[in-house]
Amino acid sequence: MIPWHKIDTVLLDMDGTLLDLHFDNAFWMEHVPAQYAQYHGIDHFQAIELLTKKMQKKQGQLQWYCLDYWSEVTSLPIAELKRDLEHKIRFRPHVPDFLQAVKDAGKRSVIVTNAHRGSVDIKMHKTGLDALVDRIISSHDYGYAKEDQHFWQHLLDDEGFDLERSVLIDDSVPVLESAKRFGIQHLLCITQPDSQKPERRVEGYASIDHFSDVMPAAKPSVDEDN
Questions:
Q1: Burial class (CB in 10 A: 0-12, 13-18, 19+), 102
Q2: Which residues pair with 91 in a beta bridge?
Q3: What region does 183 belong to: left with phi over 0, alpha with psi -120 to 50, or beta?
């Protein structure tokens, strides 16, 4: 599924790929509407309806992922509220082992996420994920979401990776489509981003559920080469 002998750089989404998307879904679909309803003195279902409309207008744009933007829109301390549910932040199956295998295979691992740096910091503190990869890049660093071609151009200029010798693993089909248009050769989709929701059927892309299915082999040692 991944021709590891042709791969130098492993680009990895964070939420729904390395980390269980259940945290984010529970936060945005349950916790934020509840807090919004309480703060503004409205019905819970009214809060869901209002927030859904606001979010749909920004879907796929950088603001969709921006904690500062939603703090302003909702009048709620979004980053602080995330800590209420941080016990739900957890790795998807076999992720630490996979990242160690990528390192042992001599590949560069770079997290490319649409998550705001405020969210990234909370998740790094909870999981220690930053110690398992070479670099973490947020789309907010470049000013463009991953759905935008400008993001990939900034990433290419920044990282200097080879489009034909890189793989992107992501749970978002729109993001994979954007990366494909840009020319990234190897693409892989996650079928069950949220552990509390059914596995999805993904059309048009190779897909996996667990990282144990695509573990790279360790790079041969000098003695083995000889």
A1: buried
A2: 19
A3: left
Residue 75: DSSP 8-state: T
pLDDT digits (tens, 9 = 90+) for 21-32: 999 999 999 999
- Specify whether the CB–CB gap between 185 and 165 falls below 8 A: yes
Instruction: Provide DSSP, 36-61.
Output: HHHHHT--HHHHHHHHHHHHHHHTTS
Q: What is the maximal distance between C-alpha atoms in the chain?
A: 72
- The values of phi and psi at residue 14, to 5°, are -105, -70
Q: Do the Cβ atoms of 82 and 27 come closer than 8 Å?
A: yes
CATH 3.40.50.1000 residue spans of the chain = 4-20+89-225
> CA–CA separation, 133 vs 128, rounded Å?
10
What CATH number matches the domain at 4-20+89-225, 3.40.50.1000, 2.10.70.10, 1.10.240.10, 2.60.120.280? 3.40.50.1000
**Cα–Cα distance between 155 and 161 in angstroms, integer?**
8
**Predicted local confidence at residue 161, as pLDDT:** 97
- Taking residues 127-139, what's their average pLDDT? 97
Measured CA to CA, the distance from residue 12 to residue 2 in angstroms comes to: 14
d(CA 17, CA 172): 9
User: For residue 197, which phi and psi values (nearest 5 degrees)?
Assistant: -120, 155
Integer Cα distance of 111 and 16 in angstroms: 12
